[in-house]
UniProtKB/TrEMBL annotation:
Keyword Flavoprotein: yes
Leader peptide range in chain numbering: 1-18
Annotated protein name in UniProt: Glucose-methanol-choline oxidoreductase N-terminal domain-containing protein
PANTHER family in the record: CHOLINE DEHYDROGENASE, MITOCHONDRIAL, GLUCOSE-METHANOL-CHOLINE GMC OXIDOREDUCTASE
Family the UniProt entry places it in: Belongs to the GMC oxidoreductase family.
Chain ranges of the Glucose-methanol-choline oxidoreductase N-terminal domain: 120-143, 293-307
Amino acid sequence: MGLLSHFTLGLVVAVLVAYFMSIKKNGGSSVVSDIKKKYDYIIVGGGSAGAVLASRLSEKDDVTVLLLEAGGEETDKPIYHVPTGCYILQKTEADWGYYTEPQKFSHFGVKGNRSYWPRGKVLGGTSILNFMVYNRGSRYDYDNWASQGCTGWAYDDVLSYFLKSEDILIPTLKDSKFHNTGGYLGVSHARVTPFVDYYLKAAEELGFKIVDYNGEDFEGFAETQFTIRNGERSSTSRSFLRPVMHRQNLHVSPHSIVVKVIIEKQVAIGVEMIRGGRKYQIYASKEVILSAGAIGSPQILMLSGIGPKSHLDELGIPVIADLPVGENLQDHLMLGIPTGVNITGSFTEKAVSSWWTYVQYFLFGTGYLSSSFLEVVAHVHTERCEGYTTAPDIQLFFVSGVPKTHTIEIIDNIKNEKRAKLDEGGFFGFVGLLHPKSRGTIRLRSRDPFDPPIIDPNYLSEEDDVKTFIRGFSVMEKYLTTKTMQKIGVTLDLLNFELCGRHEFLSDVYVECLVRHNAVTIYHPTSTCKMGSPDDPSTVVDPQLRVKGIGKLRVVDASVMPDVTSGNTNAPTIMIAEKAADMILER
Ligand SMILES: Cc1cc2nc3c(=O)[nH]c(=O)nc-3n(C[C@H](O)[C@H](O)[C@H](O)COP(=O)(O)OP(=O)(O)OC[C@H]3O[C@@H](n4cnc5c(N)ncnc54)[C@H](O)[C@@H]3O)c2cc1C
Ligand SMILES: *[C@@H]1O[C@H](CO)[C@@H](O)[C@H](O)[C@H]1NC(C)=O
Ligand SMILES: *[C@@H]1O[C@H](CO)[C@@H](O)[C@H](O)[C@H]1NC(C)=O
């Protein structure tokens, strides 16, 4: 049984149905049963990027917009709006539920050596499943994109698009020039446990700064900023789309799976879509825009004949454009360090299922149901000195509980007698690798659009990635052995895995063994339709996000990032959609 028992879940759903009925009523009018033959713009995928794009393009009332989403509506289930829902939404109908290929250099401690890759399949996409951390990344991420040929994407160019979306609800940040009020996307703190104070105190003990990581200083420790408004998840469907669902020029079609882009004489003219067992051909007079995510967008492009020639030839798909679609796959990996503590307040089954928890949530939108418990986040250069002009290499973050779900499979590798201590409460410290050198691929398994693609992130194939992990671990080790952490009973005991017992405990080879067995995804796949200069043979789209060599076809989602950002990828994806909307409408 997971952290939230089925009993708990049933209760949450039952009581919340009434509370959230108002959301459902709030304009189902744009959800169409009769799709027209032709629209100005067809957007494929209503996720973090697609929902934002549909909202912005339909602001112009003389254009017509169709949004096609494979999953259902986010209003169908109240749990989609409850922050703690992130612990139970994986492997449900709202999740594509991908597995990677068995990994050669990592995942030795995970069943089948495969990584589980949840992806949202619902209006709002992965912004419905995610842990809601609001993180724009480092300014150097964008400056680096620009220097690689992404003209117009330097930090100073993109900051205004982050601000455009934002409605900062943290009082102390309202006057910061790095934040904005009045945007669609609610951003707030969601502190629930008393652990936050200890996390920050231990950081100060080591000499780290406490920062606003979305402001002037990215490096240092911080209380996490979340895409949460009044205790409710700010998914892109809830925050950008629902308020404009009444627009006559916007049609939204859920349960609609796009199987290919229709291309005539190197120009995209429409899409082929399947809904309710019927095939539709719908035409776009202005543009087709793929926002199907870092797995979906390359899949649709390849099914349409746009991809690496040799791969498409193998499958007998006629090649329309030979481009490196599905190459350059990047993802963040994390190593989790669980520990028991001797203070109370952690996110446990008992805490979540108490009556007070429900009362508190319904009355005030606070308490154990109002957060993902990823309460503190930090970004560090593992070789510390002043005045960096590069992005940091490691993210540390802290989850104030020890969820026993498949999200953290490695917990199964902890021997039973030690797990008892965790059940009483504790936390997870995570070390995340921000700039992996390893690169993977997305390929088609067959010509069947319903066949899941072959995902091979090729994690830790580059030795340097392991070295960076080892340096990151040593920062975490110092951190977890500070006086502050010792005072609350933190130990590294639980890292004593039998699997790595042949090495000296916590030596570099021991840590390498831990990483290769237990490091798992932070769920940030990107970069499979790389943006950059059209002359660069490694790119798929130009800086206007237009697919090279094909007219009227763009990709707008996490797949265009030339390199993954130094943090969580939802806010950067929303920014990409905001900027794309202005480029498309030539505003
Ligand atoms: C468990 C988890 C936790 C995460 N935590 C965080 C976090 O705390 N903070 C953060 O910043 N990021 C987090 N992320 C990552 C972040 O949410 C994603 O990077 C981001 O949502 C990607 O946006 P996207 O628009 O590229 O893709 P998505 O949001 O996945 O949207 C793609 C949409 O296209 C649809 N689609 C796909 N194929 C088709 C098709 N053929 N036809 C029609 N529709 C299709 C999908 O159903 C989906 O709705 C997390 C991700 C996961 C999975
Ligand atoms: C998984 O990794 C282990 C350790 O390297 C190896 O022994 C095993 O054969 C692998 N399993 C699969 C399915 O590849
Ligand atoms: C917690 O454990 C530490 C280390 O054993 C000890 O010093 C401290 O007094 C304990 N605190 C409580 C509240 O029991």
